[in-house]
Amino acid sequence: MKFCPEFNNVLTFFPDKIRSCCVLGNLGPFYYDNYDGNIKNFDFEYLKTKKKEIYEKLLNEDFKDLPCQNCFYLKDKTGEDTFNEKFSLIYLNSWTQCNCGCFYCDRMEFSKGKITKRKEKSEYYDLLPIIKGLYKHNLLDTENLRVVFHGGDFSVLKEADSIVKTFLKYGVKKIDFSSNNIIFQPIVQKLLAKKKASLNMSLDCGCRETYKLIKRIDKFNDVIKNLRKYVKASKSDNPEINVKYIILKNVNDNENEIKSFIKKMKEIGITRVSLHLEHKYANEIFANKNKIPIHYKNLISLFFELCNENNLWFDTPDEVMHYIMTNQ
Ligand code: SF4
Ligand code: SF4
After folding, report:
1. Which residue ranges make up each domain of the chain?
2. Any residues with Cβ below 6 Å from ligand 2, and which?
3. CATH number, span 201-328
4. Less Cβ around it within 10 Å: N or C end of the chain?
5. Is residue 61 within 8 Å of 51, Cβ to Cβ?
6. How far is the CA of 48 from the centre of ligand 2 (A)?
């Protein structure tokens, strides 16, 4: 008998799909494939029934229609694992608008690289009526509720503030924001100060010129200014702000850029950083395990050493990164 805690807890909203989990590159079972965005077509009773049905399938190891068979999260069921109709972790990922244009961004597939200049409604569907419906139908585990903003950038999503306020009203314990931090968000500042938020961003560089190349917009100084304000608001030696460096071939894969990134982080008081490979390149490397450029291993080692020297907490969540560090 199998059990998946992620399945039990997670509900993820994508542009036209609503699924269970979205973890470490896994995409879980569907609740809605091709959701048309009409709230009248969102059936909360169906969601309950479907969840129970998938739970039973996992339990009975019936993987015929599920993408779960070889998933790392699936485990043998113990007596402590019980089905919960309510969701405690909500991923909001249903819009693609963003006010910058990272050339490596997945949303390009949807947005054709368009840079959003002002707040807009999601091009797919409004989340707010669904969130309210989940609450009304007793489908939110308000004792343990956590919300993660993914999507494009939440700062240009018209209903973002109302979504945050609604979740706060429902007693959300924490909101994890992903943002490019081009626009300063007072709500993020306030929640960081109350230890009710975390902030995650990809900066990928340590200077204005490289930023422009990657993001296709000249906003490096604004981002740094906003990060400083968030660090200050956090009133902590270890603010819950993670800044990522995604290594991009022939753009920022050099020692100078990594050194200036670390120097900048130290200077503004960021204590958590992470290193990633651009995922298409990572998949290439992973598919061909013998061809990992030694250049990359050296850059990763440099990053690691500089973090140690500067007391920065360093994370390598990436499977490929781990492989590089341990196999060459
Ligand atoms: S087993 Fe894996 S893919 Fe399936 S719901 Fe759990 S985490 Fe998602
Ligand atoms: S900030 Fe994020 S959503 Fe916006 S273009 Fe860059 S990667 Fe895409």
Report:
1. 1-178, 201-328
2. 98, 100-102, 105, 107, 152-153, 180
3. 3.20.20.70
4. N
5. no
6. 33
What is 88-111 written as a DSSP string? SEEEE------SS--TT-TTHHHH
For a mutational test of ligand 1's pocket, the pick from 27, 71, 77, i.e. the residue with the most ligand atoms closer than 8 A to its C-beta, is 71
Question: To test ligand 2's pocket by mutation, which of 107, 203, 216 has the most ligand atoms within 8 angstroms of CB?
Answer: 107
pTM, entire model: 0.92
pLDDT at position 220: 98
In tens, the pLDDT along 79-137 reads: 999 999 999 999 999 999 999 999 998 877 666 778 898 999 998 999 999 999 999 99
In angstroms, how far is the first alpha carbon of the chain from the final one?
39
- Residue 275 phi/psi, 5° resolution? -120, 135
Ligand with an atom nearest the CA of residue 54: 1
Closest ligand to 3 CA? 1
Residue 241: helix, strand or coil by DSSP?
strand
3-class DSSP state of 49: helix
Q: By alpha-carbon position, which residue is closest to atom 6 of ligand 2?
A: 102
Count CB atoms within 10 A of the CB of residue 292: 16
Residues in the chain: 328
Is the pLDDT at 3 greater than 80, yes or no? Answer: yes
The gap from C-alpha 36 to its chain's centroid, in whole angstroms, comes to: 24
Residue 219, classed as helix, strand or coil, is coil
Please give the Cα distance from 316 to 150 (Å, whole number): 19
User: What CA–CA distance (Å, rounded) separates 176 from 227?
Assistant: 15
